Amino acid sequence: MKLAPKLVLTILLLLGVLLAAGGGWLTKTDFERNFEQARTQNTLAHRRDTYSLQNGLLAKAGSGEITSQEVADYGSSLGLYVGQEQGGFAVYQDEQVMYSSLPAALGQEAACQAIEAGEEALLLRKAGQNSYMLMASPVQAAGKQYWLVSAYDVTNLFRAREEKFRELFRLELAALALAGTAAALAVSWMIRPLKKLEKASRAVAAGDYTLSTATKSRDEVGALSRSFDAMTATVRDKVDQMEDTILRQKQFVSAFTHELKTPMTSILGYSDLLRSGEMNPEDQRQAVQYIHREALRLETLSGKLMQLMGLVEQEELTLEPVRLVLVLRDTAASLPELAPMLDIRCDPSLTVMADRDLLADLVRNLVINAARAQPKDGRVHITAGRTEEGVALRVADRGRGIPEADLSHITEPFYMVDKSRARAQNGSGMGLALCARIARLHGSELRFTSRLGQGTVVELILREGEE
After folding, report:
1. Which residues form the HAMP domain (predicted)?
2. pTM value > 0.90
3. Which residue did the predictor score with more confidence, 462 or 77?
């Protein structure tokens, strides 16, 4: 059973129990009050009749012995005097009926039971469709004991109680019908956010993370819906990230395979020619140079790839205070063939928080790219200085420049603006990807500014340290 019917049935059950208990208690209280009033009235009437019978019998006793006929005549006259519309009475002597106007349905057994119960004891007896209240009292006259047994019809009391129970039942049914309708509407309104939440959860289970509950209520259900929306948004972001990662991995594998295929094709082609032995010495020398160059490119590519994989797996880096000029000297020492091109301007006392080896490798890759851009002045300019953001390290050239459409992709692995020229210069398309990862490990990003035919500037902001 769903939640809404459960809530409605629970409300109706509680309401029904409360109405039944309250109505039953009120009806019972009202019946007991009316019954007590009837008992008081009937007791007074019975005492009155008892006194009348005793006085009448005492008057008869003054003239001699009281005969059965005299008792019967007096009882008959007393019955005419007090009326017998609501029951009747009987006079007994030694369990013998002297006079009786009791309803025939009661029988002698009921009167005898009233006498056995004692003076003014109350007995309730049902005779046919009617109910009677029986009382008995002794009467002494002429040395004999008589018993007056009175019966009072209280059928109306019980009928009134039954009628009230029926009215209560009808009212309870009407109240439950109205309450059920109101409860169904209220519950339907209250669980509307839950239905939205259920629909959204089914959509999430089916793989759709775009559906939102958009619940504005401030109760617990609203809080649950907002938490669900936040969870869905987080899952959606994670899924998007995973899909983006998978896409980049596919692109990476595709590019890596393509980059491997080109040198391998050249190596296999030239080695096959060399194996045939049908080449002249000059062609053989050229083929060997091609094989050597492509093998070097494969070695460079594999080394860069291993380095990038190691940096990708590394989540954080331990940074230490390093004098920036020492990093730049390490860079120049690792590039003896490019050292004459370097124009380094850096305050010798400038200290940054960095990993010396990785930062030197970053600058080395930037210098190699700048040199390959064929700067017009034949120089690669390296400058460093303090700014409001930190220490700015810049590598600039006045070379070919980079098209604006390529600037957002140049840090992607294997991406090359001019593939033919890059391969001719033994490029792998991995250098800037390594630089971008090293920059992120230093808590920074590479900033590129470039114009075609005027050159490129790469800037990196580092946190200043104390030596």
Report:
1. 188-240
2. no
3. 462
